Fold each of these.
Amino acid sequence: GAVVSQHPSRVICKSGTSVKIECRSLDFQATTMFWYRQFPKQSLMLMATSNEGSKATYEQGVEKDKFLINHASLTLSTLTVTSAHPEDSSFYICSATRTGRGQETQYFGPGTRLLVL
Amino acid sequence: GESVGLHLPTLSVQEGDNSIINCAYSNSASDYFIWYKQESGKGPQFIIDIRSNMDKRQGQRVTVLLNKTVKHLSLQIAATQPGDSAVYFCTFSGGYNKLIFGAGTRLAVHP
């Protein structure tokens, strides 16, 4: 089956620093990837759509200057949380869209737990 | 507006029983629905999907039913096992391949 990886799996950082999270599709190419955020005991909230070779599309209320997204290749998207603060602590999950047999399916990464002190 | 809601936030079942998780949606234009399973600390895992031109689809131990008249979706798990314990999300495509997630239902399987 399709595999999506994320790195790191968890990260602890000091307030004010920037953190980069990588999302990779390991066995397929993905022109579109998505970034979600999930707070404890809550659902996944879509943050942005990452498009290979073009700018990301952000959902309403998500600061694009704070959450920088780069989709450098067909297998890699990165999310950088700039000047992180404790309220940015969350579980960040990416997904990659795989196209096949006339349909598109999203496969999710294992998530990255961010703790900002 | 678009939304996906769930009737029951928590469902407790005995091992071996059948489980039914329900979901209501509001957008009558939705044409593709997906159920995901999320275990603690992990990303969502695809379970089964269904398109609006169908009202039932079966997988291994799982069945999804779609009632477009009342905008209701359900996931049935047969012979529930401890490994089925997780949070289950009903989702539908929100255009441009986006997925709209519902609040989720936690399934707890007791021996």
Note: Chain A has no helices and eleven strands.
Amino acid sequence: AQKVTQAQTEISVVEKEDVTLDCVYETRDTTYYLFWYKQPPSGELVFLIRRNSFDEQNEISGRYSWNFQKSTSSFNFTITASQVVDSAVYFCALSRPDLSIQGAQKLVFGQGTRLTINP
Amino acid sequence: DSGVTQTPKHLITATGQRVTLRCSPRSGDLSVYWYQQSLDQGLQFLIHYYNGEERAKGNILERFSAQQFPDLHSELNLSSLELGDSALYFCASSVVSSGGVYNEQFFGPGTRLTVL
């Protein structure tokens, strides 16, 4: 079975601090996909990043960076120089391929981390 | 804007009633997924449709059903509603890649269901 654990329920930091959100996953699949989604107070789920299991390169997008380590089954998310607009609930998710439709199966979500950036 | 639309945005109804939630996927996306978000259960997968066919079922109650129509829009029907069905219901869509690389799921804005 697949499982995603986000041990940090809530994090509160002051603006401009760096913050890292942890994500640990469990799967027996050799091919899988990892995701981060952001849910701002308005409620929608916004896609941030997808990482394939065979690609362990870290990624940076502006103030956001992601550290994927298969050896520790972790896919952590760091926000550098945080801003008030980063306040949201962040979800890490895991999926496996559905080869017969060249797509993927359901997303398995962690419980989410509520991030509050204080001015 | 993800390109996925859901109607209605809010729905308030009474126990025992039946409601229909509607989802239009992004243009060209053949897969539609439904998820339920509640405070106690978090984000849970309900059901997946691909090109009109049911592909997978998750923690979906027997009182709930869904379908995907030829124009690819999908409807989630919830019947004999209970207080515990109050939640945010999301649909998501994704495109099938001819290159075999999976593309991410894009979510609609959700329908907030309140059962009184």
Note: DSSP finds no helices and eleven strands in chain B.
Amino acid sequence: QKEVEQDPGPLSVPEGAIVSLNCTYSNSAFQYFMWYRQYSRKGPELLMYTYSSGNKEDGRFTAQVDKSSKYISLFIRDSQPSDSATYLCAMRSYNTDKLIFGTGTRLQVFP
Amino acid sequence: DAGVIQSPRHEVTEMGQEVTLRCKPISGHDYLFWYRQTMMRGLELLIYFNNNVPIDDSGMPEDRFSAKMPNASFSTLKIQPSEPRDSAVYFCASSNEGDGSNQPQHFGDGTRLSIL
């Protein structure tokens, strides 16, 4: 079993839809949770960062962490075609710099 | 500011050849990470350095892989001899040592490696 599980998709939604992306994990020591966005033929770029449990909002993006369920989510409101990319969750425990990534969910937002 | 710079962007070579991938981290960053990305396994950490010193190389698949960081502005990942199963996109990332809770890794655009 992988430490971090993520549905690969693809997920196809119309412009303006609310998108929900999720990851589950097995290591209860994970404390730091991140979402990266990766466009085709580019490197991942950090979108959101959350420490421990709770919510964080940044514009159209909201990250949620539920440590009791070992479940994290990224919500995208009013999705745009420019949001079409692969979204990777990543996490690490407090005593390491080593990030563990999910395999990524490919999102396509059509006009 | 320039981001993480990787070269070459694409590499196609024959099985058995030596391959050298290069990375220039963001100036002032003291962590450098090498990753490999495939469809099947996603993004996997191979090795990372702190202040030019290798900290964790447990992700290096086998002795054919080696990485060096001779100075703060340059690192190489070498595969010798290369095999078709090494075909993947290799990413380099760098980060700053912050307060431990906010160290975003900045990625280069990767080297797409194909071993024939």
Note: The CA atoms of residues 20 and 78 of chain B lie 4 Å apart.
